[in-house]
Design goal:
By secondary structure, the chain is an alpha/beta fold. It is 50% helix and 10% strand. The chain has a five-stranded mixed beta sheet, covered by helices on one side. Helix 7 links the parallel strand 1 and strand 2. Helix 4 packs antiparallel against helix 5 and helix 6 packs across helix 9. It is elongated.
Length: 271
């Protein structure tokens, strides 16, 4: 290597050291100290873009507050946009600075969510009328007590059901589900003292219901013409309304629960 070339390399090294140690470069942590100077991009090279100047806190939450006059929805939207922009920037240019900025913003967002979640549960614990578990418990012991009370209330309602309601059962002799459900419904009705009118779609006897009466348009009058069988409906003797209970095979518990809800609970009050 010639002395002239060695001198030029040494001078270049000194210049590079001066650049890296300059106050502007130290403040930015990298090449951004040169941005804004005349001819900066030409000296830094094609792979540097001064128009994308940013530091690690560019996407911090403190930089996206639209002001005290903004609504809460606007503030949340600003935070969301900042998070998305930071993530997109990190994906397009996964430099340590941009990935770090995104992770910091994500952590701040998660901390906000954690603070809200903690305040939420503390408020629920301290305010019984806001605690849904007071209405529908989720703990094992409380849930068992609630279930026992619900069963007692349900059984009491079923014992008095015949004072106002009757059941209508639609079945078909060739229906395999009817052959299973018919006897089950008979046992259920006997246990709770319910009146049941069994209707055979063909006029033939049904499993568990030899006294079934022929359809003769009864299903159509109930609005159930062509409905799948087995089918069970409640008939309200006071309002003359028909309340479908269910179609297909239903276990006794499900049958009792549906009848209880339909006759004892207003819509929307059981949740």
């Amino acid at each position: 290597m010639t002395p002239g070339r060695l001198f030029r390399l040494f001078a270049s090294a000194l210049c590079l050291a001066a650049i890296l140690c300059s106050p502007a470069a130290s403040a930015a942590g990298e090449w951004r100290g040169w941005c804004g100077q005349p001819g900066a991009e030409a000296r830094l090279g094609w792979h540097f873009y001064c128009d994308r100047e940013e530091d690690e806190t560019e996407y911090g939450l403190e930089s996206v507050d639209p002001g005290a006059s903004a609504s809460s929805i606007q503030r949340i939207e600003s935070i969301r946009r900042a998070l998305e922009e930071s993530r997109a920037a990190a994906i397009l240019d996964p430099s340590p600075a941009k990935v770090g900025a995104y992770l910091r913003l994500q952590r701040e967002t998660l901390q906000r969510a954690a603070a809200f979640s903690d305040a939420f549960r503390r408020t629920v614990w301290a305010t019984p009328d806001l605690d849904y578990t007071m209405t529908r418990p989720v703990g094992a012991l409380a849930k068992q007590l609630w279930s026992d009370a619900r069963r007692d209330e349900r059984d009491a309602a079923l014992r008095n059901l015949a004072e106002r309601y009757g059941l209508i059962y639609l079945g078909h002799p060739a229906c395999s589900e009817c052959r299973v459900f018919g006897p089950l419904l008979r046992a259920f009705a006997l246990r709770h003292g319910l009146d049941v009118l069994a209707v055979s779609m063909t006029g033939e006897a049904l499993e568990g219901w030899p006294e079934a009466v022929p359809d003769h348009g009864r299903a159509a009058a109930l609005g159930l013409d062509g409905a799948p069988t087995p089918a069970v409906v409640l008939f309200d003797a006071e309002t003359r309304q028909v309340l479908p209970v269910g179609f297909g095979v239903l276990a006794e518990d499900a049958l009792a629960e549906r009848i209880f809800v339909l006759t004892q609970r207003e819509t929307g009050h059981d949740y």
